[in-house]
Amino acid sequence: MQLQSIPLHLVVIGGGSVGLLYASRLLLSGQSVTLVTRTREQAQLLTQAGVTLRQLDGTMQKASIRSNPMEDGLPQGDLYLLAVKQSDLDAILPDLRHLSAASRVLALQNGMGHYEKLTQVLESRQCFFASNTEGARRLSPVEVEHTGTGLLRIGPWTEQDERDPICNAFVELANRCGFQAVYEDTIKPFAWRKLLANALINPLTALFEMPNGMLLESPHTVTFMKELFWEAAAVAERCGEKIEERDWQEVVKICRNTSRNISSMLQDIRRRNHTEVNAINGYLVQKGRETGIPVPMHETLLRAVLLKTDMVKGKGEAAIDLFG
Ligand SMILES: NC(=O)C1=CN([C@@H]2O[C@H](COP(=O)(O)OP(=O)(O)OC[C@H]3O[C@@H](n4cnc5c(N)ncnc54)[C@H](OP(=O)(O)O)[C@@H]3O)[C@@H](O)[C@H]2O)C=CC1
Ligand SMILES: CC(C)(CO)C(=O)C(=O)O
Q1: I want to staple 206 with a disulfide (CB 3.0 to 4.6 A). Which of 50, 65, 110, 265 is the partner?
Q2: For ligand 1, which residues put their CB under 6 angstroms from it?
Q3: Percent of the chain scored above 70 by pLDDT?
Q4: What is the CATH number of the domain that holds 53?
Q5: Ligand 1 centroid vs 196 CA: distance in angstroms?
Q6: How far apart are CA 142 and CA 51, in angstroms?
Q7: Crossing angle between the packed helical segments 277-291 and 219-238, to the nearest 10 degrees
Q8: 264-302 pLDDT, tens per residue?
Q9: pLDDT on residue 261
Q10: Is the complex ipTM more than 0.85?
Q11: Which of 166, 186, 206 is the last residue of a domain?
Q12: 21 burial class (0-12, 13-18, 19+ CB within 10 angstroms)?
């Protein structure tokens, strides 16, 4: 069987930065895609205006799109790309429960906790996870900017006997539409390493309001990051992931490679949204408690980001002036 010849109908859930990037790229290369949005207004705008992708070189491309709001229920699909934040997964779990046993879901979230949530409502053989370093920013409900190339790793949480044909076909397809995608036999080690990077870069950039690369410019932030890294590494190791010095070097590399990026957590704070800190530092705190590993620095960061979120959400217009 030629796996790349499997025709897939793809359903992207979430019309934010990642959802619009994936939907537009897949549509522009001729794939069948339906985008499911939270609001009816966005679905209508997309159906009327199409989706516009601003490429890295500044060129714009537009594609027609079929879009429905979530309240109309999920359409039939072979693969559902979950492009909502960790904190929004709970709201879509009841709909995922009704998916056909032949369908697969691919969770694109940063942070942790999605494996536990998805396997409450789906068979684990249906659940796939991505570690995604491709950057995107939603410019409007119908327009998205590709902000950085990266690597899309896709795999089951733990090894399966055979590669899943649908996910394997999606990896082929993603490569054909411009993503650099690879199928991993297990995503867990990559998810842990991404968690460690996000647990350092995201809260520090959000609290100090700096782009990722600036974290490397002061010995104070570098020392802070190193201490946070090894605190989190002790939890990872207790959970079965051996973390090494070269993993720390990878975090430094991510900061360098994304030096001008405004991290997703800082973007959320600037938009006065809730952040994914609970699924990132909060997850480490929870696992630390369960495994008896103290994580006082991550606990403090978690509190500080939650406090900052409350402050910017409560300050209204003043917060816009402050962070705009
Ligand atoms: N942006 C990036 O470059 C990267 C992001 N990630 C991860 O990908 C995930 C998605 O991030 P991102 O796209 O940036 O986030 P956004 O906040 O831009 O988009 C999330 C989207 O989900 C929608 N949504 C929320 N609830 C529902 C629902 N019940 N039904 C349908 N749609 C819903 C939101 O709708 P509405 O707008 O109406 O609220 C929003 O459009 C996160 O976990 C993030 O950490 C990972 C790597 C890079
Ligand atoms: C890799 C990094 C830190 C890039 O900004 C990211 O994943 C995020 O901002 O959430």
Answers
A1: 265
A2: 13-19, 36-39, 42, 70, 83-86, 88, 91-92, 108-110, 132, 135-136, 138, 264, 276
A3: 95
A4: 3.40.50.720
A5: 20
A6: 5
A7: 50
A8: 999 999 999 999 999 999 999 999 999 999 999 999 999
A9: 85
A10: yes
A11: 186
A12: buried
Of 133, 145, 195, 202, which is best to mutate to test ligand 2, by the most ligand atoms within 8 angstroms of its C-beta? 202
Closest CA to 52 of 167, 134, 170, 143: 143
- Any residues with Cβ below 6 Å from ligand 2, and which? 110, 133, 197-198, 201-202, 212, 254, 258, 261, 263-264
Please tell me the pTM assigned to this model.
Answer: 0.92
Looking at residue 5, its pLDDT comes to 59
- The two beta strands, 127-132 and 135-140, are unpaired
Report which of 318, 319, 304, 213 is spatially closest to residue 273, judged by C-alpha positions. Answer: 319
Q: What own/partner pairs with CB < 8 Å and gap ≥ 24 does 121-127 have? A: 121/93, 121/94, 121/96, 121/97, 122/96, 122/97, 124/156, 124/157, 125/156, 125/160, 125/164, 126/99, 126/101, 127/156, 127/157
125-134 pLDDT, tens digit per residue, is 999 999 998 8
Residue carrying structure tokens 């009327």: 48
Q: For residues 171 and 259, state if they share a domain.
A: no
Q: Is residue 57 part of a domain?
A: yes
Rounded to the nearest angstrom, the distance between the alpha carbon of 82 and the centre of ligand 1 is 9
Q: Residue 236 pLDDT > 60, yes or no? A: yes
* Tokens at 111, concatenated: 């942070």
* Confidence band, pLDDT 50/70/90 cuts, at residue 7: confident
Name the residue range of residue 42's domain.
7-186
Checking if the pLDDT of 142 tops 80, the result is: yes
